[in-house]
Amino acid sequence: MNARNRWIASAALAGVLAAGSVAAQPQVTLQQGKSGQVSWVAGGTHTAEIDALAEQEKGHALKLIFTLTAGNYLAGVDVTVRDAKGTVVLEQADTGPVLLAKLPPGAYTVTATSEGREQVRKVQVGKGLRTEYLRWPATDKDFALPAQ
Fold it and tell me: Does the predicted model carry a pTM greater than 0.85?
């Protein structure tokens, strides 16, 4: 094979690989909704979703990140946010590992539950973005291999 044909074959292979990597990019489908006057968006199960959420941070007052203490991101979390009067202002099941909420400034109580294990956090939201990490201890079940 001469140098020109090697170059064409290399270019063709690069094109096929590039096309394959574009096709392999996951489609970004974030959860989003409104709970009363509070709008929210969540996701983050892959890099493209994390990037899309980062682009949407502006205008949100609260960012919740759910992880195991080992550092692994955690999805499937049920979240309830109550205002200072105890009124539920946001309730969302099966969310995460990142949730962004547009809340007015004030004091809130965040309750997040993963597989029956609950985390409760008091947060003060102001004009900027407040980030809270909610971490659960890992169990053997979190790292078990699937049955074959």
Answer: no
In a domain, 8, yes or no: no
Round to the nearest angstrom and report the end-to-end CA distance of the chain.
Answer: 47
CA pair distance 52, 56, nearest whole angstrom: 7
Give whole-number Cα distances, 129 to 24, 37, 50, 90, 136, in Å.
Answer: 32, 18, 16, 17, 23
For 30-65, write each residue's pLDDT tens digit.
Answer: 888 887 789 999 998 888 888 889 988 998 999 999
Question: For residue 1, is it within any domain?
Answer: no
Angstrom distances, CA of residue 35 to CA of 20, 31, 121, 142, 146: 39, 13, 19, 31, 36
Helical (H) or strand (E) element with 49 = helix 47-55
Q: How many domains does the chain have?
A: 1
Whether residue 2 lies inside any domain: the answer is: no
